[in-house]
TrEMBL record:
InterPro entries membership: SAM-dependent_MTases_sf (IPR029063)
Membrane as UniProt keyword: yes
Keywords, sorted A to Z: Membrane, Transmembrane, Transmembrane helix
Gene3D superfamilies named in the record: Vaccinia Virus protein VP39
Residues passing through the membrane, by range: 5-28, 34-54, 75-91, 97-118, 130-147, 153-174, 181-201, 541-560, 572-592, 604-623, 639-658, 670-692, 704-726, 732-748
Name of the protein: Putative membrane-bound spermidine synthase
Pfam families: Spermine_synth
């Protein structure tokens, strides 16, 4: 039994670190911009690799034994988790984001030390150890959804601390350290008791001072506005986001705020539409002011305001699609205030991703309406690293396909950047449908979101504009209706058939081609595709944050290489493990992002795909020591060639299988994904433990094992960053194929080909 304790410790450490990573991401998403959160989390995860480097350094001088280091690092791991979260949660927001990096990094460093020390001391069973590590991470990817949805944020921190404490308990039992066993037992009882009791933790969760003081959160910005915040009347953490309802001095609405930035109002409504006629003065109402609106699809229905516009426009059947369950819960929680908007007979609410919903629907609509979906992208670059399938070329084609005769597709967007990209996407789709260049400008209308008085106050710029597309040209009756309502609302028309925007008038007159139009616009206004759906990246260059992470990681690698990888044969070995870290993430990141489209939920795609991939890799790891693999695949390392080929084939077979399973229930789609991911996962799980075992025959120093763990960890962070860069420039498929090519190149170069030497401590 004693020998199994060390495997349990690896499993629990992998489980703890994965859930902690998700919690860290959720915390930073609430207080930092998306791009900055990406930087902080990426650099924090770098700590896992640094943990391996530290293990190599500390145990290399022989003064500290592996046993002592393992006991110490596993002891401090649960402490670091709860302390690091507490510091970032309860202390006021700091503009010194490097403090968040170092604070968030500590558990990863200690976790990396725990696992790399165990690998070093048990090199002969590296395949089984890696299996347990991946199994822990894989189960963590599934468990974290249930844990966060059930317990909220702070209770989830206690749960992950308990897992880490159990890892320390297992290590203490393995080495028979009675006092440490007793101490771990006492703290386990205390933490479990606090979790069961619950009220103290719930009280602490409300003291999110970093959130309240962050300059980027809505509640903080409201303090300088006319609508002062009066307090938070509803708050909910789940695996998707933190959702709050903020009361303000405006008694006619409450604000739903997601992750501190995305806002969606709940309008005061008593069920009588005559009481909300004032909403007809809003630009949002224009798509519902003309034509038929019997059947309406609202994507991103938020607090229900857009549903009210549809009701005012005469809609009899409204499908309201909202991805965040906490948003729907918030609206229903204030049903007396909102007129129970989501439970009206005309309205049916779907807790789903809008793109996934319409892809699986056979219904057609008079009006498909999207109002500022992903509202927290108001800053142009804030969400540039985020994929979004709502606004891609393929999505646009699907929307138009689901319109009835003379139906309308309407977008309300944030600014001129969004407007140009949305409009250019629609034009491209229409051109590809066979609409001639001189006629295509008759198929859309653009209205400025602010009235003329507000436009003057904003310097005459474009702000929150509305764009409406049709499958047919706008009729003169529709054009006159739009002219009348915009004049009544005192708004400027940016583009209308017969009154074209100068840029699109040049397109109409064939003075420029569509390609020239895209090139002449000074920012990135090219349509996004499902293969590279980074809609909010408006820069023609890469976002600064990507360069920053790359430079930091490369700097760390240069320091590590110069200081610890001096011998020539060690460089070949490090090349192997660096390549594995790079290749694995170049496959993992894009495959997860591609699957969002099929599951309709980023959190489900993340969990299901990662669990399937890690479970498969765990099986591959366990099989790596099988006699058949050692006999037929090691010399030369054919397993690397097979891995590359399997990745290339699997990326297409997985998509085919998911397309065939699109109409199935969620559980069956998960089973399909699990089966489809198995070959890729198994193949990708073999190289790392095989490399660790090969060290046994080609090196004299066992202390090189944690060093190679560290190298692999550093290049995993580099790989995740490069995966996004390549995906933004060339698409997800390119990133996947480059990952496969790296595996094949490692087969060709065979950096582990060396003579045998006895291993020493």
């Amino acid at each position: 039994m004693n020998k199994y304790l060390i495997f349990i410790a690896v499993f629990l450490t992998g489980l703890s670190l994965f859930i902690y990573e998700v919690l860290l991401t959720r915390l930073f998403s609430a207080v930092l911009t998306y791009n900055l959160a990406f930087v902080v989390v990426s650099l924090a995860i770098l700590g896992s690799g640094l943990g391996g480097i530290l293990t190599h350094k500390i145990t290399g001088n022989k003064k500290i034994t592996s046993e002592k280091l393992l006991l110490t690092s596993s002891q401090w791991l649960p402490v670091s988790i709860i302390v690091s979260i507490a510091l970032m949660y309860f202390l006021p927001f700091s503009l010194m984001f490097i403090m968040y990096v170092f604070t968030g990094m500590m558990p990863f460093i200690l976790g990396g030390m725990v696992i790399s020390t165990i690998f070093k001391s048990n090199i002969g069973v590296s395949g089984k150890l890696y299996f347990m590590d991946l199994l822990g991470s894989g189960i963590g990817s599934i468990a974290v959804i249930g844990i966060m949805n059930k317990f909220g944020f702070m209770s989830s921190v206690i749960v992950v601390t308990i897992f880490a404490l159990l890892a320390f308990f297992s290590v203490s039992c393995y080495y028979r350290k009675t006092l440490k066993i007793a101490a771990a037992g006492v703290f386990l009882i205390l933490l479990t008791g606090s979790l069961i009791q619950g009220s103290v933790i719930k009280s602490l969760e409300k003291r999110f001072y970093a959130y309240y003081t962050s300059p980027g959160t809505v509640i903080n910005m409201l303090r300088d506005s006319d609508e002062k915040p009066l307090g938070i009347s509803f708050s909910k953490w789940n695996a998707i986001s933190r959702t709050d309802v903020i009361e303000t001095t405006n008694k006619n609405e409450k604000l739903i705020v997601t992750d501190g930035g995305a806002t969606a109002p709940i309008i005061k409504f008593n069920g009588n539409l005559n009481e909300v006629q004032y909403l007809k003065e809003s630009v949002n109402y224009i798509p519902f002011s003309f034509g038929k609106n019997d059947d309406t699809l609202v994507i991103g229905s938020g607090g229900g305001k857009d549903v009210l516009f549809a009701l005012l426009g005469g809609s009899r059947k409204i499908d309201a699609v909202e991805i965040n369950p906490s948003t729907i819960e918030a609206v229903n929680n204030f049903k007396d205030f909102s007129g129970d908007i989501y439970n009206r007979p005309e309205v049916k609410v779907y807790n789903q991703d809008g793109r996934n919903f319409i892809e699986n629907s056979s219904d057609k609509y008079d009006n498909i309406y999207l109002s500022m979906v992903m509202t927290n992208a108001i800053e142009n670059t804030m969400y540039s690293l985020s994929e979004n399938y709502i606004y891609t070329y393929e999505a646009f084609k699907t929307y138009l396909k689901h319109l009835k005769d003379n139906g309308k597709l309407s977008f309300m967007v944030h600014n001129a950047y969004d407007l140009a990209k949305i409009t250019n996407t629609g034009i491209k789709v229409l051109l590809d449908k066979g609409i001639s260049q001189d006629k295509v400008t008759d198929y859309f209308v653009i209205v400025n979101g602010v009235n003329r008085q507000e436009s003057g106050e904003h310097g005459g710029g474009v702000n929150m504009p509305l764009v409406i597309f049709k499958n047919t040209p706008f009729t003169w009756e529709e054009i006159n209706s739009i002219k009348n309502i915009t004049e009544m609302q005192n708004r400027d028309i940016i583009h209308l058939p017969g009154k074209e925007d100068p840029v699109y008038k040049a397109l109409k007159n064939k003075e420029i081609t569509y390609t020239q139009l895209i090139k002449e616009i000074p920012f990135n206004s090219k349509p996004t595709t499902d293969n590279s759906p980074f809609f909010f990246n408006y820069s023609k260059l890469l976002p600064f944050e990507m360069y920053f992470v790359l430079l930091i990681v490369l700097f760390v690698w240069i320091v590590v290489r110069r200081k610890y990888i001096e011998q020539k044969e060690h460089r070949g070995i490090s090349f192997y493990f660096a390549g594995l870290g790079l290749a694995y993430m170049l496959v993992e990141i894009p495959i997860i992002q591609k699957m969002v489209l099929y599951f309709g939920s980023p959190s489900l795609a993340f969990s299901f795909i990662l669990f399937s991939l890690l479970a498969g890799s765990g099986i591959g790891s366990a099989l790596s020591s099988h006699e058949a693999i050692e006999k037929h695949l090691l010399k030369p390392p054919k397993y690397l060639l097979i891995t590359g080929i399997v990745i290339i084939v699997s990326q297409w077979s997985i998509i085919w299988m998911l397309n065939e399973a699109r109409g199935l229930q969620l559980i069956y789609r998960f089973i399909v994904v699990f089966i489809a991911m198995m070959p890729m996962g198994i193949a990708m799980g073999i190289p790392f433990p095989t490399g660790i075992k090969r060290l046994e025959s080609i090196i004299r120093d066992k202390n090189l094992v944690p060093l190679m763990w560290g190298v692999n960890g550093i290049f995993s962070v580099l790989g995740s960053t490069l995966a996004i860069i390549i995906s933004m420039i060339f698409g997800f498929n390119a990133a996947l194929n480059i990952g496969a090519i790296i595996y094949i190149y490692l087969f060709i170069s065979n950096p582990l080909r060396m003579g045998k030497a006895p291993i020493q401590e």
